[in-house]
Design goal:
By secondary structure, the protein is of the alpha+beta class. Helix content is 29%, strand content 28%. The strands form five sheets. It has a six-stranded antiparallel β-barrel. The longest helix has 40 residues.
Length: 471
């Protein structure tokens, strides 16, 4: 039966210095291993890598036979580009409005009956409905193209990590059904598991530096950082495990080695490191986030001061922005942890409201002025470049309900508009931070906003789940 001990160190078992702590046995392992599979069943067309090859994140490692999917994308693209029905209904509506205007003028002069006026108005309304149907068909065709393109992309397999190919399970012509394609191991950084006697429990802290000496023929000492201390002691052996992250940018070390570890009385700040941001072999390298760690706020060495502030920043889609913010916060003695939220390629990230394309830029400007005057909506602007040139933007919303309300308001003012969802398919990044040492968040906000304009800050109680605060 395992014995659970408190993580806080008592005065009797505190760490008195590296000289009093002996070397411990340890094992060097890959930071993570991945058995790479395909999201779709298919037949392997080609394998781009061999066992022992080094791969980069995002690199193509295999392709599946995708002949039918290529044809489906071409078919969907052709359908999405067909605008004849839409142009027909637009011309019919323009003619109907001119005809209705003439009939109304004749009706004012009592030169035409009420039935003729009603007929003209009804035909105009029916044409408007047909025009909306044509727009809906075009939107559906574009969604079909997006779906077909996403399906085709699944037939090209990319590496999710920087690492090395340790196994290749399939060859060209073999089926991927119920079989992984490759096994990958991330070797920069490496993970070191240290077995420590229970007598030293409480003497070690996250962020503590460790000298690792691999067995022969790998010689020399290598500096690592403690990231996880197992809170559960194995009663049978009287030991507990400590995890250390060991930078290996030059790939001189290999995994699977036995080693010796000596804990030092030195500490490094616990800053996150994504797979794109590898640790350097400096004396105090940043600590990558272990795959198994679920905490939103990193563990704090010692008790946090009373004035500590905890908050969540984000979201970002740029790893570069997240890294720059992390560096700025670390300079203010903040503890930072990145949290990656997987992208849903079928979930819209925002909703655009647009008019149909006008004949030229002048017509788009006139329409924008007319919409502002009649609807009272201020964020209306003509688009002057790109694929949406000569259309009028009626606002961008992150919630569909808000976009729908705006769309109804536009239509009540007598204008036609299209609600267009946008899919970016990119993961979002959040920064969960703890600011201690009397630092004031408001004092460093301008510096952070200079890096990421439009930055959102969501404060929450320290120790509360940051995930809920960041939504």
């Amino acid at each position: 039966m395992a014995l659970v001990l408190a993580a806080a160190a008592s005065p009797l078992c505190g760490f008195a210095g590296s000289a009093e702590m002996p070397e411990f046995d340890c094992v060097v392992d890959p930071n993570m291993t991945v058995e790479l599979s395909s999201a779709v069943d298919g037949v392997v067309e080609s394998m781009q890598v061999q066992k022992g090859d080094h791969v980069k994140k995002g690199q193509v490692v295999a392709r599946l036979d995708a002949g039918p999917q290529v044809a489906a994308v071409e078919y969907a693209r052709t359908r999405a580009a067909m605008n004849a029905d839409l142009h027909l209904q637009e011309e019919s509506l323009a003619y109907g409005r001119r005809s209705q205007k003439r009939i109304t003028a004749l009706h004012v002069k009592h030169a035409i009956s009420d039935d003729e006026v009603d007929k003209a108005e009804t035909e105009t309304r029916l044409t408007r409905i047909k025009l909306e149907q044509a727009r809906e068909k075009r939107r559906l065709a574009r969604l079909d193209l997006r779906r077909a393109t996403a399906t085709l992309a699944q037939y090209t397999i990319h590496s999710p990590i920087d690492g090395v190919v340790t196994e290749r399970y399939l060859n060209p012509g073999e089926s991927t059904k119920d079989h992984p394609l490759l096994k990958l191991a991330q070797t920069d950084p490496l993970r070191v598991e240290i077995i420590v006697p229970v007598v030293h429990f409480g003497a070690l802290k996250p962020g503590q530096q460790v000298d690792i000496t691999p067995e022969a023929p790998m010689n020399g000492r290598h500096r690592g950082t403690v990231t996880i201390i197992d809170p559960v002691v194995d009663a049978a052996s009287g030991t507990f495990r400590v995890r250390v992250i060991l930078p290996n940018a030059d790939h001189k070390l290999t995994s699977g080695l036995k080693c010796k570890a000596r804990f030092l009385d030195e500490y490094a700040p616990l800053a996150p490191a994504s797979q794109e941001q590898k640790a350097s072999p400096a004396t105090t390298p940043p600590t990558p986030e272990p795959p198994e760690e679920k905490a939103d706020v990193p563990p704090v060495v010692g008790a946090p001061p009373k004035a500590a502030q905890c908050m969540t920043l984000g979201p970002f889609t740029s790893s570069r922005t997240a890294r720059r913010l992390t560096a700025a916060l670390t300079a203010h003695q903040a503890q930072v942890r990145q949290r990656h939220e997987k992208a849903d390629p079928h979930k819209a990230s925002r909703y655009l409201l647009l008019t149909d394309r006008m004949e030229n830029a002048a017509a788009a400007r006139r329409l924008a002025q007319e919409i502002r005057a009649k609807s009272g909506i201020r964020d209306v602007a003509p688009i002057t470049r790109g694929s949406m040139k000569n259309r009028v933007s009626l606002g961008v919303h992150t919630r569909r309900s808000f976009a729908q309300e705006r769309l109804e308001k536009i239509r009540k003012a007598g204008f036609d508009a299209v609600l267009m969802p946008q899919y970016n398919g990119r993961p979002r990044i959040w920064l969960n931070i703890q600011l201690s040492g009397g630092k004031d968040l408001d004092a460093i906000k301008p510096e952070l906003k200079a890096i990421a304009p439009g930055l959102h800050f969501r404060k929450h109680a320290c120790g509360a789940p940051a995930l809920a605060a960041s939504r």
